[in-house]
């Protein structure tokens, strides 16, 4: 039986759900939908960003709305224009088979008269940002005095953005007998105040512990000197060749400066902040969704409403002023059942903030070191080899092969491979051979249950394994596979870094012999799974054969690294 049908949804919604390919309801949907369908009740739902909240309130709202009545019956308030449009589009997809249902988005940066006209034509559901809705109420352009349902989506975000007065004013224009559904990732005091003031004995549902982070996100921090933040950011990006990330800064100025530096240094990056025009923001978000941009540098306010499921990393270039905001940042990754990584570039004086965040998200951070030159070089070389292997041959090259073969005829296969790789390796080595170590000694105050395992000097070993994202693994599933295969505890396997077609992980040295023995001639689904000891011992600061620190991307211009005019990161 269709699991969505078991929730009580009607055939029109089930048909749309089938078209969209939804198969299994998320936890928040399973908890919220039956209650909202069966009862006329207020509700407070606490769930992280990316857990399917829009469908959790959208399906019941659509089913309860009378499509034959052209008056406005449902109002949804959301913090940003982007989220407003996203909710509107999703509701339209959900209600595609409901004849006569009209859903209108109201937001700043577009014609207010055109939006008012759309509402007057008959909009049973209005999705709005608080500022624009308040403006239209003040001008008498919209009537919400007869609505039956009011939904506050991302309530904590709206209040963090200073919309408390707007929200209370808007709600004062709605009837007392309506149902109010409040959806939020966290429950700060201001949200509780709204619930107490405008809701009557609300049903409460919580997905996970209150204010906690999602289990699909791995949290880690890197200790550096404050002046080395930018260099640390570049090295973390270079250690993850397929990165698709949001980088968070505190201020608009820092956001713009970091983005400009990344672009100058050859990364596919862009800034997203409040000083951009709406057209500029739309262009940036379009480029990010299509992966033309791999590193989106954003302020917290500008990033609200970003809904992209495949973000691999959230990088906290600076921690937010309010520790609760970290939960929203990290919630941008690890969405739709996928795993993600939230990194913090941290000054030693900020360790106390990590402890405060751990209490809120109810998870511990893993202490990690900024990758060494050798480690990043190894990753980039494997990535280059994988890229060459998986590149589809352009048959036009056949026209040039005779001449190319003539040039290369005196070079054997092994020597040719060495020379090909050395073209990129040489640039990399020459630029980073004098780069310094960016890591700062954590000291005793950096308490962490994984700390002993994460410090390279404690005798850990780093391994290479020939499986990665192409084989369906992420850090979480690979860790589980290794743990089950080798028979170790979860905390015995750490520093799991999954790349496109290969991965790395660490264990204490005592486990090395057993791991190598188990993976001797080890086959899975007819394929040999190989594990070798990595040439770089866990990113240790004592790595030999390379100078300290450093990393970059392959495929840079001949003008040297860190110079203007360099080409973008190539994949």
Automatic annotation (TrEMBL):
Occurrences of domain DEAD-box RNA helicase Q (ranges): 2-30
GO molecular function terms listed in the Swiss-Prot or TrEMBL record: ATP binding; hydrolase activity; RNA helicase activity; RNA strand annealing activity
Helicase ATP-binding domain residues: 34-205
The keyword Plastid is annotated on this UniProt entry: no
Gene Ontology BP annotations: response to cold
Enzyme Commission number(s) of this protein: 3.6.4.13
Motif position, Q motif: 2-30
UniProt source species: Sinomicrobium pectinilyticum
Matching InterPro entries: DbpA/CsdA_RNA-bd_dom, DEAD/DEAH_box_helicase_dom, DEAD/DEAH_RhlB, DEAD_box_RNA_helicases, Helicase_ATP-bd, Helicase_C-like, Nucleotide-bd_a/b_plait_sf, P-loop_NTPase
Organism taxonomic ancestry: Bacteria, Pseudomonadati, Bacteroidota, Flavobacteriia, Flavobacteriales
UniProt-recorded name of the protein: RNA helicase
Biased composition (Basic residues): 562-571
């Amino acid at each position: 039986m269709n699991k969505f049908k078991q929730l009580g949804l009607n055939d029109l919604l089930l048909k749309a759900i089938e078209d969209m390919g939804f198969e299994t309801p998320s936890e928040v949907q399973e908890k919220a939908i039956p209650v909202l369908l069966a009862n006329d009740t207020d509700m407070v739902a606490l769930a992280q960003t990316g857990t399917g909240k829009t469908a959790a309130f959208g399906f019941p709202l659509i089913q309860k709305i009378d499509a034959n009545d052209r008056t406005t019956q449902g109002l949804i308030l959301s913090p940003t224009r982007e989220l407003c449009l996203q909710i509107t589009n999703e509701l339209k997809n959900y209600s595609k088979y409901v004849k006569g249902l009209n859903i209108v988005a109201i937001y700043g940066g577009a014609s207010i008269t055109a939006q008012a006209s759309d509402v007057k034509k008959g909009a049973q559901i209005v999705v709005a940002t608080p500022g624009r809705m308040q403006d239209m109420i003040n001008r008498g352009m919209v009537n919400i005095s007869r609505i039956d349902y009011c939904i506050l989506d991302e309530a904590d975000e709206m209040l963090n953005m200073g919309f408390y007065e707007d929200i209370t004013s808007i709600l004062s224009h709605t009837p007392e007998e309506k149902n109010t559904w409040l959806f939020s990732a966290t429950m700060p005091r201001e949200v509780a105040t709204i619930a107490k003031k405008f809701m009557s004995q609300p049903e409460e549902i919580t997905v996970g512990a209150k204010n906690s982070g999602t289990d699909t996100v791995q949290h880690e921090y890197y200790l550096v000197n404050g002046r080395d933040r930018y260099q640390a950011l570049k090295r973390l990006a270079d250690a993850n060749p397929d990165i698709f990330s949001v980088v968070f800064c505190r201020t608009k100025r820092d956001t713009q400066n970091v983005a400009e530096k990344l672009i100058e240094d050859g990364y596919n990056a862009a800034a997203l902040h409040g000083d951009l025009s709406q057209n500029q923001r739309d262009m940036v978000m379009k480029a990010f969704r299509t992966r033309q941009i791999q590193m989106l540098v954003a302020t917290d306010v500008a990033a609200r409403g970003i809904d992209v499921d495949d973000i691999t990393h959230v990088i906290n270039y600076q921690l937010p002023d309010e520790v609760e905001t970290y939960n929203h940042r990290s919630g941008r990754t690890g969405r739709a059942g996928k795993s993600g990584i939230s990194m913090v570039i941290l000054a030693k004086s900020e360790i106390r903030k990590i402890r405060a965040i751990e209490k809120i998200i109810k998870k511990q951070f893993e202490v990690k070191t900024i990758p060494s030159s050798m480690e990043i070089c190894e990753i980039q070389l494997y990535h280059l080899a994988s890229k060459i292997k998986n590149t589809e041959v352009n048959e036009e090259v056949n026209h040039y092969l005779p001449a190319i073969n003539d040039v290369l005829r005196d070079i054997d296969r092994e020597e040719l491979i060495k020379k090909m790789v050395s073209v990129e390796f040489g640039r990399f080595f020459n630029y980073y051979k004098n780069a310094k170590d960016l890591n700062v000694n954590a000291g005793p105050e950096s308490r962490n249950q994984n700390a002993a395992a994460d410090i390279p000097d404690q005798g850990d070993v780093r391994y290479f394994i020939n499986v990665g994202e192409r084989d369906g693994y992420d850090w979480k599933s690979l860790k589980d596979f290794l743990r089950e295969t080798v028979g170790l505890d979860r905390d015995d396997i750490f520093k799991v870094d999954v790349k496109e077609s290969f991965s790395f992980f660490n264990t204490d040295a005592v486990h090395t012999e057993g791991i190598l023995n188990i993976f001797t001639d080890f086959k899975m689904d007819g394929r040999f799974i190989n594990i070798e000891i990595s040439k770089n011992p866990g990113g240790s600061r004592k790595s030999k054969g390379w100078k300290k620190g450093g990393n970059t991307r392959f495929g840079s211009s001949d003008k040297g690294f860190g110079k203007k005019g360099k080409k973008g990161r190539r994949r």
